[in-house]
Design a protein that fits this description.
The chain is of the alpha/beta class and 131 residues long. The chain is built from five helices and five strands, in the order βαβαβαβαβα. It has one domain: Response regulator (Rossmann fold, 3-Layer(aba) Sandwich).
Length: 131
């Protein structure tokens, strides 16, 4: 996936999820709502992408192959510059919500309980002054 973002005034969201349909739906809504969107299918791919394209916010699934979301978040928080990027975790497992926040996510939401529009609002809440 060759992705380069030309920095504009639009906030950049990195959407990390192995489910292509979920990424496509959320990406389309985020583009309509005025965001730039980068995509990765797992945490390892995301860490590589972020070396050249650091986003303003990360929206990350918990369960993925190669590197899951909690491992990704743990690695991300070790990096002095990238570790400051806000992360919103999404999962289908209620028990993972608290774990994600303990590892360092700003917020964790159940995929089954939020619409793409609601996810956009959660992202906006954590973007602060980058909008």
């Amino acid at each position: 996936m060759d992705q380069n973002i030309n920095r504009t005034s639009k906030p950049v969201i990195l959407l990390i999820d192995d489910n292509e349909t979920y990424r496509k739906i959320n990406k389309n809504v985020m583009l309509i709502e005025g965001f730039e969107v980068l995509e990765a299918t797992n945490g390892r791919e995301a860490l590589t992408l972020m070396q050249t394209n650091p986003p303003d916010l990360i929206l990350c699934d918990v369960y993925m192959p190669n590197m899951d979301g909690l491992s990704f978040l743990t690695e991300l928080k070790k990096d002095p510059s990238l570790g400051k990027i806000p992360v919103v975790m999404v999962t289908n497992v209620q028990e993972e919500l608290d774990k994600a926040v303990k590892v360092g996510a700003e917020e964790a939401v159940l995929k089954s309980s939020v619409t793409p529009k609601q996810i956009v609002e959660v992202c906006r809440k954590h973007l602060g002054n980058t909008q």
